[in-house]
Amino acid sequence: MQQENIVRKTTKLAFAFIALAGAIGTAAYADESSRGDGRDGMTMRLNKVMKDSNGTITFDQFSDAMDSRLKKMVADNGGKLTVEQLADALEKARFEQMAKRIIARYDAKGDGTLTADDITAREKKVFAMLDRNNDGKIEKSELPGRIGQHGQGGGSDNDDDSSMQ
What we know:
Layout: H1 2-28, H2 39-52, H3 59-65, H4 69-76, H5 83-106, H6 116-130, H7 145-148
């Protein structure tokens, strides 16, 4: 009976750890999987461990396969991680991911930096794509559906569209 309780407790802890790792992985490290939910990366790591260990995984193997970044964050903060510290780390990771995507989208030279020339080059490219009749002006009818719809944002045709710069 005591052995059964230990197994149940260990199983519950393992599932709790999976849920926690998945939640942290989803929010902070969405780049690990194409779906952005962190599950593919975890599944790949667990499949590798299972393959390397003849189809079974011990808790120690499971723990080693999980993302160690959360454990490192706890260790780096004196063995405890507050909501504020975790939120700051998640926010930083999210904004770093956004910054990487923006740099990749605008960086014309591919050197990992963003310059005013890169921004202008990107704007010219997008403008040219929107100016379908090549008259040097974008008319409302040339805007993509969501942007060019009447009453966008609760306004009317007479509203100033300066927010679309």
